[in-house]
Specification:
Blueprint: H1 12-26, H2 41-69, E1 72-89, H3 105-112, E2 114-129, H4 132-136
Antiparallel strand pairs: 1-2
Protein name: IKBP1 protein
Keywords: Cytoplasm, Nucleus
Main location: cytoplasm
């Protein structure tokens, strides 16, 4: 009797632990196929949001450093605009099924990894001189 079980994991470490446990308990009676990696639309959307928020945070920190250089303090933002978002990588490896055995796990992970970048434009208020207390920090 042959059975096939398909499990979807969202955590790579848990997948490895379950596979190791199955092999440990069932030995040669179980065959574990190489995993197929993919990204849900929700996961890619969450990545886009995280990258945009990080870009805005980086822009704010850079503006604060410039203000400190001139003895000013950074105020509230007047305008924040997302200029460009790019994504690359994240190839679904199901089309590699003929060569999946030849790909090492690290290569499969690298092929399935999604990268994103975001460019933002921000205009901040610049306040007057920093007070003495902030300069001492």
């Amino acid at each position: 009797v042959h059975s096939q079980v398909c499990i979807i994991f969202s955590d790579f470490g848990k997948m490895q632990n379950v596979c190791n446990l199955l092999i440990e308990k069932l030995g040669t009676s179980v065959t574990i196929s190489p995993p197929h990696f993919y990204h849900t639309p929700e996961a890619v959307d969450a990545l886009r949001r995280q990258v945009c928020v990080a870009a805005v945070g980086n822009t704010r920190r850079k503006a604060q450093e410039v203000c400190r250089l001139f003895g000013q303090s950074l105020g509230k933002p007047f305008l924040i605009r997302e200029e460009e978002t790019k994504e690359w990588g994240g190839h679904i490896d199901s089309h590699l099924s003929n060569t999946s055995d030849s790909l090492m796990m690290q290569e499969r992970i690298q092929n399935a990894t999604v990268y994103a970048s975001c460019r933002v434009f921000a205009v901040f208020e610049i306040k007057g001189k920093e007070n003495r207390r902030n300069k001492l920090l």
